[in-house]
TrEMBL record:
Keywords: Chloroplast, Iron, Metal-binding, Oxidoreductase, Plastid. Destroys radicals which are normally produced within the cells and which are toxic to biological systems. Residues 209-237 have a biased composition (Acidic residues). GO terms for biological process: response to light stimulus. It is found in: Plastid, Chloroplast. It catalyses: 2 superoxide + 2 H(+) = H2O2 + O2. Mn(2+) binds at residues 9, 61, 160, 164. Pfam families: Sod_Fe_C, Sod_Fe_N. It is an enzyme of class 1 (oxidoreductase). This is Superoxide dismutase. Belongs to the iron/manganese superoxide dismutase family. The gene is FSD2. InterPro entries: Mn/Fe_SOD (IPR001189), Mn/Fe_SOD_BS (IPR019833), Mn/Fe_SOD_C (IPR019832), Mn/Fe_SOD_N (IPR019831), Mn/Fe_SOD_N_sf (IPR036324), SOD_C_sf (IPR036314). Residues 76-126, 132-194 form the Manganese/iron superoxide dismutase C-terminal domain.
Amino acid sequence: MSRETLDYHWGKHHKTYVENLNKQILGTDLDALSLEEVVLLSYNKGNMLPAFNNAAQAWNHEFFWESIQPGGGGKPTGELLRLIERDFGSFEEFLERFKSAAASNFGSGWTWLAYKANRLDVANAVNPLPKEEDKKLVIVKTPNAVNPLVWDYSPLLTIDTWEHAYYLDFENRRAEYINTFMEKLVSWETVSTRLESAIARAVQREQEGTETEDEENPDDEVPEVYLDSDIDVSEVD
């Protein structure tokens, strides 16, 4: 990734999202919240509020920059590698699926590796307590500014497939950009740390949910998770 791309991508695009968001939420109830909270609230059960796009793009870009490092790439180790091999068959198979998802994400968007610790399917709108088989790594393609937080997934890694992320260096050769990203930039140490945190959060939430389930859902009602039916979201198994 060249300095010119960094100057434009981080110094102009990312900066503009942050500046526009600050203007949008100034003096509103959103102003006192964390960026993640702004993303979730402005998603508004799929009926997105005006602040969502700038908030989500600001969050996505911060997450993207933290996902890479000079001299990155290679192969993960430990629990991350174990789960990748369990859920995708092998690390090489994961790479092919992730690259294919990123290359085929039409138009502007993001491709993610996420930890799914609920029973939510993007075709459903229910989210009961998960079974063990529901806890897995998934590859998700999202359009525009949308990210997996809105489905209660834990993002672990993302690649920006908006043209501004790669056009100065690779022009229309998105596949070459994706290969460079995966082979030379990904910080697997960061991804591993995120996975540890995601698993810990899932365990804590499941314990809390078990303790309060009968009280909150006395008739075995299933809590709802709202999806945006107007966007095309692909979870790549």
